[in-house]
Amino acid sequence: MSVEGVFKHFPIRQGIVFKKEIARVHAVDGVDLTVRRGETLGVVGESGCGKSTLARCLAALHPVTRGRIVFEGQDVTKLSGAGLKAFRRDVQMIFQDPYGSLNPRRRVGSIIGDPFAIHGIAGGAERKRRVQELMELVGLNPEHFNRFPAEFSGGQRQRIGIARALALRPKMIICDEPVSALDVSIQAQVINLLKDLQDEMGLTYVFIAHDLSVVRYVSDRVAVMYLGRVVESATEDELYAGPRHPYAAALLSAASIADPDEAERAERIVLSGDVPSPIDPPSGCRFHPRCPKARDRCTVDDPPLIVRPGDAPDHLTACHFPVERGENLARESAAIAQVSTEPDLPEAST
Questions:
Q1: Which of 21-35, 42-56, 216-230, 254-268 has the lowest mean pLDDT?
Q2: For 109, which of 4, 145, 190, 191 could close a Cys bridge (C-beta 3.0–4.6 Å)?
Q3: DSSP 153-195
């Protein structure tokens, strides 16, 4: 899948009868990505940066404002009717909330069997057999075919969602924070299940999550998003070893570290200010109001997502002044924060 300059804006309207558009939320604002066959692409970023909106655009659940999404040579943004229905067989989605993504009034067998009914693949006893096979594949008891979602735990409900996504044997699955609502022990079970299914079925994943350790464990490549844009993209090893974008460096510095000695030595990069509003994003580089390395150029010139000198060919960074190897960004950000919080003393009277 190739994502080329994708924008998704949500209009804000005012009025009762004649509604007038007064502003727009820039949820996704010019994203370029490539998802390769058989890999797991992790997508990380703060809440509200556009990860889930991007996921829904990739799955053709949201129409894009402009740009192209090309899947196996076909422009997904122009599909409709039978073409869109065929696309659904190849690209499926696992939603974040295992409680809200399942209809509480329907039995589990009916929920998992919906893809077979919609696409006219199997019916009757054959459909029931396939649904029970899927339930067994994801670690559920096939005998619980007639139970309602309320009779399952959170982890089991997420397994139901995974089984539904696998029903049509898709080529790609978009996982929108599939473990964020689960306990840690259940998270490990679901993550390992997804990895086993990928090895067995040759699946491609787009894996969205807030937990940076989970993303590192499951991903081959990672894309970092900030305020609707991808600011850095690299292999998992390269990004975690040496992030080049100041925001990516700050984000990774906030990740939890299991080793207490290493955690004590680690220096966290504390950013100043708040995330700008996606309704009125800043000019130039979106990150410049909070960046410890920002200069005048950053306020007017939007940096392209390209390979910077000294980086690998697939390590892309959108920054005019990327973090250099061995640079201590934590001390720079601490110095800026100290200056910005020092009180202004009154001038001495003569």
A1: 254-268
A2: 145
A3: -HHHHHHHHHHHHHTT--SEEEEESTTTTS-HHHHHHHHHHHH
> What pLDDT, in 10s, does the model give residues 99-109?
888 999 999 99
Residue-level pLDDT at 81: 87
Q: Are 204 and 36 in contact (CB under 8 A)?
A: yes
The pLDDT mean for the chain works out to 88
Residues with Cβ within 8 Å of 143's Cβ and at least 6 positions away in sequence, in order, are none
- The torsion angles phi and psi of 287, rounded to 5 degrees, stand at -95, -5
Question: 247-253 contacts: CB < 8 A, separation 24 or more?
Answer: 247/271, 247/287, 247/290, 247/291, 248/224, 249/323, 249/329, 250/329, 250/333, 251/44, 251/45, 251/46, 251/212, 251/224, 252/212, 253/330
What is the reported pLDDT for 334? 58
Given a contact cutoff of 8 angstroms between Cβ atoms, the answer to whether 57 and 64 are in contact is yes
Most distant CA pair in the chain, distance = 96
**Fold exhibited by the domain 2-219:** Rossmann fold (3.40.50)
Domain boundaries, the chain: 2-219, 245-341
Say how far apart CA 97 and CA 279 lie, in whole Å.
26
Q: List, for residues 156-188, the tens digit of each pLDDT value.
A: 898 899 999 999 999 999 999 888 777 787 788
Alpha helices in the chain (DSSP H): 51-58, 82-90, 108-118, 124-137, 154-166, 184-201, 212-218, 236-241, 246-253, 260-265, 296-300, 329-341
92 phi and psi angles, rounded to 5 deg: -125, 170
